[in-house]
Design a protein that fits this description.
The complex is a heterodimer of chains A (111) and B (297).
Chain A lengths: L14 E3 L5 E3 L10 H29 L5 H7 L8 E5 L2 E6 L8 E3 L3
Chain B lengths: L24 E6 L2 E8 L1 H15 L6 H8 L1 E2 L4 H16 L9 H7 L26 E2 L4 E2 L12 H10 L3 E8 L2 E6 L3 E5 L8 E5 L2 E9 L4 E2 L2 E2 L2 E2 L4 E2 L4 E8 L2 H13 L11 E6 L4 E4 L5 E2 L2
Antiparallel strand pairs in B: 1-2, 2-6, 3-5, 4-5, 6-7, 7-10, 8-9, 10-15, 11-12, 13-14, 15-16, 16-17, 17-18
Helix pairs in contact in B: 1-5, 5-6
The chains are: A alpha+beta (111), B alpha+beta (297).
Chain lengths: 111, 297
């Protein structure tokens, strides 16, 4: 199949009639606007882009969650994830966890 | 669902409070450590902290150094009177275990200059710790027993931090080298540094206002000594734990609890801690339980 190095798909040559009376264009054959390989590549790109975007959003949410106030900590706290509950203030309890689990606002250390 | 806050005069709906990460933040070196302040009023809080440090330090000319040199001070600044009254109240509450009269023993042990400084123990026996009952404090005057000198390091930092925290509005955090006060409408996580640089613990605090203090015998330590003096023998304390962390609504009480946990871990005086954890010399974690004993998690 002849390749057309002219990227303008709107280029047309003059028209002539053939023996059957059908009109045909002279000049190089028209390229389809969108062939199968390009369509596949386009769909793949869109899918990957959407997928990556979704992953980025999930990661961002996970990174933001520890610095938000009550709901994330409450939702994720469980007696099985830490040392259990110690101490109380009214109906609230303070917890000690055996490792860094949430985003901390500060560090207490001897000085 | 909570109703939005409204202005009491106009009835207009008030905007929600700013997120913690968008609050003003300041950081500077003070009290011999890094101080971090987050919240509205951070500049005021730091200015007050600097002012109080200048009044109460024993390392630079101050009312405290004049008191120690002369044995008495009149007029005494109201801040010194208040800080010393607090220190003496703690001495009374702890049976003298935490007392402001340890300075001669502290110098004997080697802690003479601002930290970090090369500390060397002195030769010979330590000078005895004077009796805190003999300190006389009026509204504008202080008198010490003969030979006594004060160091407010045992109670002063938490006292200063609590005073400065009052300058902050709303949600806030004031962290003075690991002793901190936090106020939040939601839960707050605070890391607890491991004394041997292992994996930190993490405290999860309920909403509200909390003081978190940590004391230890490894940070300000040198061959032959460290900065926590046991007044019973005027020497650096021999401790079961190397680090203790206490949670209490009042940082001043949290600081006292950490020192009691180091000096007298088996006493019943620890009962009012909301939470108390400690590391032993092997880096193992212990929790202080409601029954008064220490247990492993």
């Amino acid at each position: 199949m002849a390749t057309d190095t002219d990227t303008s798909s709107s280029t047309r040559g003059p028209t002539r009639s053939n023996a059957a009376g059908r009109r045909r264009r002279s000049g190089p054959p028209r390229r389809p606007v969108f062939d199968k390989d390009q369509a596949t590549l386009f769909l793949l790109t869109v899918t990957l882009g959407l997928g990556l975007g979704a992953v980025v959003r999930v990661v961002q949410r996970a990174q933001q969650a520890p610095t938000s106030a009550a709901t994330q900590l409450t939702a994720q706290r469980s007696p099985t994830t830490g040392y259990g509950s110690y101490g109380s203030a009214g109906n609230q309890r303070a917890y000690v966890l055996p490792q860094r689990t949430f985003g901390a606002r500060g560090t207490t250390r001897m000085s | 669902m909570a109703m939005p806050a409204t202005d009491v005069r106009s009835g207009a709906v008030l905007p929600p409070p700013p997120a913690f990460d968008s609050l003003p933040r300041r950081q500077q070196r003070a009290l011999g450590t890094e101080v971090r302040v987050t919240g509205v009023g951070a500049d005021r809080a730091l200015a007050e902290l600097e002012r109080l440090e200048e009044l109460l330090t024993r390392f630079h000319p101050s009312p405290v150094t004049r008191l120690n040199a002369l044995g008495r001070l009149r007029p005494a600044p109201p801040e010194l009177v208040a800080a010393l009254r607090h220190a003496l109240a703690v001495a009374a509450d702890t049976g003298g275990l935490i007392t402001p009269l340890v300075l001669p023993a502290l110098r004997w042990a080697g802690y003479r200059d601002p930290w970090p400084a090369s500390a060397r123990p002195s030769a010979g026996p330590p000078p005895p710790v004077a009796d805190w009952h003999e300190v006389a404090v009026d509204d504008d005057a202080v008198a010490l027993p003969a030979g006594a000198e004060i160091d407010l390091g045992g109670t002063g930092k938490s006292w200063i931090v609590e005073r400065c925290f009052a300058a902050l509005e709303g949600e806030a955090l004031l962290d003075a080298g690991g002793d901190l006060v936090t106020r939040s409408p939601g839960e707050v996580a605070i890391d607890v540094a491991h004394p041997y640089d292992g994996e930190p613990l993490q405290l999860v605090l309920p909403p509200g206002r909390w003081g978190v203090a940590t004391s230890g015998v490894l940070a300000r330590a040198w061959p032959g000594g460290h900065h926590l003096i046991d007044p019973r023998n005027a020497r650096p304390a021999q401790t079961r734990f190397v680090q203790a962390t206490a949670l209490h609504p009042d940082l001043r009480r949290a600081e006292v609890l950490t020192k009691l946990a180091l000096l007298t871990p088996d006493a019943g005086a620890l009962a009012d801690a909301t939470l108390l954890v400690a590391f032993d010399r092997d880096g193992v974690v212990w929790h202080h339980r409601d029954g008064g004993d220490w247990g492993r998690p």
